[in-house]
């Protein structure tokens, strides 16, 4: 059996409004129907519940709304962008201009996502003065985890730094990648060189003409970028031809502002007659791309190549889905189509309350510091709840981790108060847990007060006396074993400076569908159809409604440290109520 | 404490370190313990893997060479191993010091070859932290993770998988819970 650690989850009230509708459709026990609103219970197994339950550590507390805030009801604001590998901060202007990847030398292995390191291909210098001599290139990127190397895709670098810039210029296999500007220039040059001669002529002529550039080949294979730029150039020229040159002379890139272009666009939607004829007369002038120069790529040819390659090299040379997902713009079907992946930037974010817009958490903007300027976590405002079995599990019983059905077990609920005021806690649980297997739950002491937290100084003093407190604990345990100290209804089990333990008695339900009729609940009779115990249905979860009341100094909120407001009125009654879920344990199947 | 010198599990040092009698600590002169650190049974610390590569500025070399430096309130669980990372540099193989800051928990059976581990780092059971990995503050590494060599893990990360990748972030409220003072206090002979 897998081990089970007791847990407590807190419900964020932001989802509360959506719960009743769900409960209405359920047939709740008749006793609860009478006053539906008050008696409404929280079902931790409801499909929605999963989205509102959080461990206390994940919750915030808004001091202005006096309410719990969960990750779903806060707003994130980016404070800093940084590279998770080199930990350099990236200004937001750079992020906008160059994208959300590290533009230094931080790369991930395209095969296994481990970080790549730069190393030299050459043997290290040896002999006299080897320490002073610097490594000479060429350099490659190496993966320390799966031993992949950029050599496998034929990429080497001249310098060990600025890899991002160098990689942007190299194709897999070592060929150069042209930038958009260069590509345009290249295309224009090539056009000029061969203008006047038809395509067929070029083909014949090419062997003779000794031009440095490749000839214009209509079936040329293009990569994604050059195809895009070709297409773009083609459509721009088409647009320029189609729309009359305006008085202002706008054509090309920003031609949409020209009256001609505008009227055409308007005509698209309104279909107005005035422009219709004009548009119709123009429509013949627009055509689609015809060859590679204009950005047309006929795909089947590349598929055939891929098939041939697959036949020759097998499945293991193809890339996996997750590997391909890193390259959304290119079809990286094979492993040698993959390229090193630049690290995605990470962010430091501050969090705001969605309702009142107050900041709940704000980290220092520097990447290296881990401090927070503001950090209003629920941990500092709400009593934490921990759960453990009352009687220490005896080593002899092997099945002690499982709860025995129909046998009462007692658990110790410990509330620890983080506030510097003492709080009054009221607990409420449904007598039977919701779900098909209803266990009986009794909180022996549903109302108690938890003492105030003290500051760090007192805690430090306590540190020395910690030994005595543990001996006290042991005594109570011994008392329990002797049977002197019994769990009594209405009484707190144990009490500390800022914590209180109370006893909860649970009678776990039986997971079998047989058994006397009177034991069956309404839900179970309905669910007679499927007699399987569903996943995690054997986990005993208790919904607990916790109400916390305390008196806080309101002066603390409104007017900082004003000495004048030292009155009785300075105290303000606060109240907070929320649902919790206690995961107690798994029930043994019989 | 006790009347007879009954040998307990741990040897407690002046600075409050609790070192198990059944741990293997090699090269003790090259290991620095900040204090209040717990070293459980079968833990291996390789202080003998010293730096052999002479550093470029000779003024730096004074006193004892350090192979492993550990801060305060660290906890090394049963059977974990700390070894300084080593690599070839300019044709010479050398180990480099392993630095561990405060409140670092290392789970049972994990092997650590990192260059640096920051404060409040929790490494689970049976993990491998590769050579020259740098782990910053407030990081949780889940059980069975293999952190690849040279990986840098930024603060507030949760890392899992083989190879390890950042799978989540440490929530603001979890920061307090990563303090190991309480854990140290609970360790008794």
From TrEMBL, chain A:
Ordered alphabetically, the record's keywords are: Acetylation, Coiled coil, Cytoplasm, Cytoskeleton, Isopeptide bond, Phosphoprotein, Ubl conjugation
The record's similarity note reads: Belongs to the dynactin subunit 4 family.
Skewed-composition ranges (Basic and acidic residues):
183-194, 201-216
A Gene Ontology term for the protein's cellular component: stress fiber
PANTHER family assigned to the protein according to its UniProt record, in alphabetical order: DYNACTIN P62 SUBUNIT, DYNACTIN SUBUNIT 4
Polar residues: which segments have biased composition?
18-30
Mention any Pfam family matching this sequence: Dynactin_p62
The UniProt entry lists the main location of this chain as cytoplasm
Name of this protein: Dynactin subunit 4
Q: Subunit notes for this chain? A: Subunit of dynactin, a multiprotein complex part of a tripartite complex with dynein and a adapter, such as BICDL1, BICD2 or HOOK3. The dynactin complex is built around ACTR1A/ACTB filament and consists of an actin-related filament composed of a shoulder domain, a pointed end and a barbed end. Its length is defined by its flexible shoulder domain. The soulder is composed of 2 DCTN1 subunits, 4 DCTN2 and 2 DCTN3. The 4 DCNT2 (via N-terminus) bind the ACTR1A filament and act as molecular rulers to determine the length. The pointed end is important for binding dynein-dynactin cargo adapters.
Q: Which domain of life is it from?
A: Eukaryota
Q: Which InterPro entries match?
A: DCTN4
Region annotation (Disordered) maps to 18-46, 183-216
UniProtKB/TrEMBL annotation, chain B:
Q: Which Pfam families match?
A: DCTN5
Q: Where in the cell does this protein reside?
A: Cytoplasm, Cytoskeleton
Does the record carry Cytoplasm as a key word? yes
GO CC field: dynactin complex
**Record SUPFAM superfamilies:** Trimeric LpxA-like enzymes
Q: Key word Cytoplasm present in the record?
A: yes
Q: Could you list this entry's UniProt keywords, alphabetically sorted.
A: Cytoplasm, Cytoskeleton
Q: Which InterPro entries match?
A: DCTN5, Trimer_LpxA-like_sf
The family note in this entry says: Belongs to the dynactin subunits 5/6 family. Dynactin subunit 5 subfamily.
Name of the featured protein: Dynactin subunit 5
Species name for this entry?
Phialocephala subalpina
């Amino acid at each position: 059996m897998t081990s089970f650690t007791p847990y407590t989850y807190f419900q964020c009230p932001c989802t509360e409004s959506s719960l009743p509708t769900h409960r209405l459709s359920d047939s709740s026990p008749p006793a609860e129907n009478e006053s539906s609103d008050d008696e409404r219970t929280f079902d931790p197994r409801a499909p929605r519940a999963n989205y509102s339950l959080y461990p206390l550590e994940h919750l915030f507390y808004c001091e202005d709304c006096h309410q719990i805030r969960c990750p779903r009801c806060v707003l994130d604001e980016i404070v800093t962008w940084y590279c998770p590998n080199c930990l350099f901060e990236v200004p937001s202007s750079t992020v906008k201009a160059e994208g959300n990847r590290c533009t230094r030398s931080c790369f991930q292995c395209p095969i296994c996502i481990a970080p790549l390191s730069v190393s030299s291909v050459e043997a290290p210098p040896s002999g006299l003065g080897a320490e002073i001599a610097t490594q000479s290139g060429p350099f490659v990127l190496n993966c320390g985890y799966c031993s992949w190397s950029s050599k496998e895709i034929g990429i080497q670098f001249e310098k060990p730094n600025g890899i991002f810039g160098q990689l942007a210029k190299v194709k897999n296999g070592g060929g150069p990648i042209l930038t958009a500007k260069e590509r345009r220039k290249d295309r224009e040059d090539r056009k000029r060189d061969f203008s006047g001669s038809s395509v067929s002529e070029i083909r014949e002529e090419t062997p003779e003409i000794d031009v440095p550039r490749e000839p214009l080949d209509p079936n040329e294979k293009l990569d994604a970028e050059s195809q895009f730029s070709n297409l773009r150039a083609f459509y721009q020229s088409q647009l320029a031809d189609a729309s009359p040159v305006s008085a202002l002379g706008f054509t090309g890139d920003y031609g949409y502002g020209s009256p001609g272009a505008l009227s055409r666009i308007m005509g698209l939607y309104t279909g107005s007659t005035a422009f219709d004829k004009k548009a119709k007369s123009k429509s013949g002038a627009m055509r689609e791309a015809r060859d590679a120069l204009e950005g047309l790529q006929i795909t089947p040819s590349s598929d055939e190549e891929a098939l041939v390659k697959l036949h020759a090299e097998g499945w293991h040379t193809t890339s996996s889905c997750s590997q391909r997902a890193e390259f959304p713009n290119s079809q990286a079907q094979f492993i040698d189509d993959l390229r090193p992946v630049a690290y995605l930037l990470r962010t430091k974010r501050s969090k705001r309350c969605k309702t009142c817009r107050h900041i709940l958490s704000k980290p220092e903007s520097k990447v290296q510091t881990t401090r927070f300027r503001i950090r209003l976590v629920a941990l500092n405002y709400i009593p934490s709840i921990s759960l453990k079995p009352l009687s220490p599990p005896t080593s002899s019983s092997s099945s002690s981790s499982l709860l025995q059905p129909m046998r009462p077990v007692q658990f110790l609920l410990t509330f620890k108060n983080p506030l510097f005021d003492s709080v009054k806690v009221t607990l409420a649980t449904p007598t039977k847990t919701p779900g098909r297997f209803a266990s009986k739950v009794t909180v022996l002491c549903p109302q108690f007060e938890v003492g105030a937290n003290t500051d760090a100084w007192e805690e430090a003093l306590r540190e020395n006396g910690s030994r005595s407190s543990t001996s006290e604990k042991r005594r109570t345990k011994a008392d329990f074993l002797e049977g002197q100290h019994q769990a009594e209804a209405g009484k707190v089990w144990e009490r500390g400076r800022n914590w209180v333990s109370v006893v909860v008695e649970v009678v776990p339900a039986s997971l079998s569908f047989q058994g006397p009729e009177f034991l069956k609940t309404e839900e179970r009779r309905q669910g007679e159809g499927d007699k399987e115990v569903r996943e995690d249905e054997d986990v005993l979860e208790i919904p607990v409604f916790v109400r916390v009341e305390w008196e806080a100094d309101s002066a603390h909120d409104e007017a900082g440290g004003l000495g004048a407001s030292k009155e009785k009125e300075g105290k303000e009654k606060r109240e907070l109520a929320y649902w919790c879920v206690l995961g107690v344990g798994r029930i043994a199947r019989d | 404490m006790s009347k007879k010198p009954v040998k307990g599990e741990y040897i407690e040092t002046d600075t409050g370190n609790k070192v198990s009698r059944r741990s293997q600590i090699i090269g003790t002169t090259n290991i620095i313990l900040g204090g209040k650190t717990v070293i459980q049974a079968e833990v291996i610390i390789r202080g003998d893997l010293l730096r052999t590569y002479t550093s470029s500025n000779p003024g730096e070399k004074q006193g004892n060479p350090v192979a492993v430096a550990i801060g305060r309130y660290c906890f090394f669980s049963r059977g974990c191993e700390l070894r300084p990372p080593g690599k070839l540099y300019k044709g010479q193989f050398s180990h480099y010091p392993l630095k561990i800051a405060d409140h670092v928990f290392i789970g049972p059976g994990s092997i650590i070859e990192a260059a640096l581990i920051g404060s409040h780092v929790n490494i689970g059971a049976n993990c491998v932290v590769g050579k020259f990995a740098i782990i910053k503050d407030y990081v949780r590494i889940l059980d069975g993770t293999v952190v690849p060599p040279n990986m840098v893990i930024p603060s507030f990360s949760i890392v899992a998988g083989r190879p390890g990748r950042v799978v989540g972030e440490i929530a603001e409220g979890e920061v307090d819970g990563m303090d190991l003072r309480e854990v140290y206090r609970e360790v008794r002979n």
